[in-house]
Amino acid sequence: MFLPQRRTGSFTGEQMKENFKAVCIGGGCGASQVMAGLKAYTKQITGIIAVTDSGRSTGKIRIAMNVPAPGDIRNALVTLSDGDPVFKQLFQHRFSSEKLHELDGMAFGNLFLAALTQMTGSFELAVKEATRLLQLTGRVLPVTLYSTHLCAELLDGTVVHEEFNVRALNKPPIKRVFLQHPDIEAYRDCVGALQEADLITIGPGSLYTTVIACLLVKGVAKAIVESRAVRVYVCNTTTQPGQTDGLSLSQHVGEVLNYLGSGAVDYALLNSGSPSEELRRKYAEDGVYLLEPHPQEVQRIQDMGITPVLADFVDATAGKRTLWEKQDSVRHVPERVAAELVKLIQVTERE
Amino acid sequence: MTPDGFLKWLRPGMHVKRWLALLLVGILCLSLGVAYIMTHLYRTQPFPESAYWVTLQFVDRRLRGLLFLAVGAVFAGVALWRLSHSLLAPLLPPSGQNGLADIVYRYRQLGKGPRIVAIGGGTGLSTLLRGIKAYTSNITAIVTVADDGGSSGRLRRELGVLPPGDFRQCIAALAEAEPLVTELFQYRFDQGEGLNGHSFGNLFIAAMSGITGNFERALHESSRVLAVRGQILPSTLEDVVLCAELDDDSTIEGESQIPHGPAPIKRVYLRPADARAYPEALKAIEEAELIVIGPGSLYTSIMPNLLVEDITQAIKAARGRKVYVCNVATQPGETDGYKARDHVRTLQEHFGKNLFDYVVINDRVVPMPPEWHVDSLGGGPEALAGLGVRVITADVVEEKRPTRHNPQKLAQVLLSLVPGQG
Q1: Could you identify which of A327, B177, B296, B409 might form a hypothetical disulfide with B301, taking C-beta atoms 3.0 to 4.6 angstroms apart as the criterion?
Q2: Is the pLDDT of residue B54 over 80?
Q3: Where do you find CATH 3.40.50.10680 in chain B?
């Protein structure tokens, strides 16, 4: 296993606390989990969150008020919040109303962000205010302030628009994804964060609609490639119907490199643990299959110039969740992911 | 810190001098204790050479004493000051231009302010609250839950929560949270099909109801989260509907419908008629020094509270002074053609003559634009002659909006009525 010529800092345990700058790219559930785990090691965490979501309550509010997607940002804000627990609960509360369709299922936090955006005219200000009110450790940044949509060209040539459709089930596999407005710039604080980071994590999360959706924004990929940080791709535990049916572990990694450029990722965290047989069957019923690090997959990843890191990241006992209009996946355990990440930046030898 | 700033800490009522004094006594005892122990050690143990220099033995004893006293005092003083700032800095609101001393002073003063209960609803009540919050933090606002119009009404129907509208206005009036949050609370969505017209504050309270499981706790948590000075209580937790019997013997149901009836209102009542009062509200009335009824829409804001029988009984039995603040203008659909006299008489007809002893009316009639279709209400004491009430006439109207009271002017008048203050 060779060591890349990256900034593999010689952080000792004591020095490390509050010392290293972590940037986690992704969405509401995946990146949030990584950030939650890293909280125990550093206060300087920045989350870069996708804003092209168009489903569920986020979708409704985007239609209603034409704002960038607040949903994933909301989740990230709540994860990093160290404030009043009531406020956190409030943000995640979903209204249920049979009579009012628009409000049904709407997360209060989304309304908060949308209202603040409308009132002040700035999504940036809304996120900053929410950060303050929720007393965040670290910060959450939208990958861009522009409201745009994710589109995909499928293998059979058809093109679908909007994230909700990009992840729809029962359609031909995705050939490539792109943004409706490909020239939109990344939020400048994101680029700055990436440039100064000691650790950059990508994922886990929906490959196309979350991870690559962030990488597509102009400026992000470049900042990652040029950064001196340790760059880690946290691979998904399972496939995701509608997006990655039939894709293998190495193909996931390959797709990320496609949009970033080769040499842009140093390590890939691969899950070697697995839930019980029964749970696997339940997931399989929904078309969700475990991504297993078979030797030939691991070899393929190594051939891409990336160092694979295998560990058991999953919670073997946790049951399936019912998410509102979304499929569940096997979740990473935040503490284990963070522990592995921290080991990676603690490697003391330099080349 | 300026000498002036330092003196602020010594003002009466800060609860600072007493603890400073205790601290001084404590330090004194500590010093004495150390001195005794040192003397004992000095006499029984050999001391190293350095001790001689460190304790300045070469200096005359009196001077030595003064020196150590001075140094000790400076160290302790600086430490205290910086310690309190370190501990409190994260808690201070960022918008404050006030120093810490001012904040503590205000907190203490307001905490000793008179206990005032204000009963009413809507804009009128929040106007009042804005005015009196400068004088006291012992404010209890009792608001109506019969609202069924606008965003409140829709939320009531769509989400099954008690109408939050009046609470929201009162919370906004009493909140000490920063301006942006308070502004957000008042923000009304103007886009989106289902969201349109809803005020964000109402949704906030509705969401709180959702997570706390009941309206009472939702109010409590909302108030806490927004740093509300004082308390805001519903007159009842029951789902009540306001009904009106009109002059033509027809009935109208629903607070928002009542101003649009075909005939003038004869009397109003609640359904159910025996709604139980919210116990905390009764307690506040019992303990109040001043009970203010109004301002607010006579039939649709003030009455719904008084129609809860226990509330009215509590007011009559209370020892505090009771005042009715009459509207400064009539309201279309509710009080067309009414004079100040008619307002008072209506209340007396519904609840008896011993509900309040004082009435505040504006001291003059103010010109109103004809297209508003409202009459200004005002006059001298003769306006309410023969009704068995003491009349207070004062300039309480808001110049720029003559259908409303001016918060500061109204507050001054009411404060002068507090027993022991006027």
Answers
A1: B296
A2: no
A3: 110-239+274-417
What architecture does CATH give domain A1-50+180-351? 3-Layer(aba) Sandwich (3.40)
- Domain coordinates in residue numbering, chain A: 1-50+180-351
Residue B200: per-residue pLDDT: 85
Determine the average pLDDT of the residues in A129-144.
87
Confidence of residue A323 (pLDDT cuts 50, 70, 90): low
In this structure, the number of other CB atoms found within 10 A of the CB of residue B385 comes to 11
Tokens 């569940």 belong to residue: A328
- If interface means Cβ-Cβ distance under 8 Å, which residues of chain A face chain B? 61, 63-66, 84, 86-87, 89-90, 93, 95-97, 99-103, 108, 111-112, 115-116, 118-120, 129, 133
Asked if the Cβ–Cβ distance from B191 to A65 is below 8 Å, we say yes
pTM: 0.72
DSSP helix/strand/coil, A231: strand
Instruction: Write out the CATH class of domain B110-239+274-417.
Output: alpha beta
- What CA–CA distance (Å, rounded) separates A13 from B197? 54
Report the SS3 class of residue A233.
strand
**Could you say which DSSP state residue A173 is in?**
P
Residue B98 banded pLDDT, cuts 50, 70, 90: low
**With a CB-CB cutoff of 8 Å, which residues 188-227 of chain B face chain A?**
189-195, 200, 203-204, 206-208, 210-211, 221, 224-225
Are the C-beta atoms of residues A142 and A73 closer than 8 Å to each other?
yes
Mean pLDDT of B112-134: 89
Tell me the pairing of strands B265-271 and B241-246. antiparallel
pLDDT of residue A317: 60
Structural contact between residues B144 and B235, judged by C-beta atoms closer than 8 angstroms: yes
Segment A130-135 shows an average pLDDT of 85
Largest Cα–Cα distance in chain A? 64
pLDDT tens digits, B76-87: 889 888 887 788
In single-letter form, the type of residue at position B112 comes to K
pLDDT for residue A326: 54
C-alpha to C-alpha distance for A175 and A274, rounded to whole angstroms: 29
Strands A22-26 and A45-49: parallel
Closest Cα in chain B to A134: B225
Buried b (16+ CB within 10 A) or exposed e, B322-336: bbbbbbbbbbebbbe
Report how far residue A210's alpha carbon sits from residue A26's, in angstroms, rounded to the nearest whole number: 6
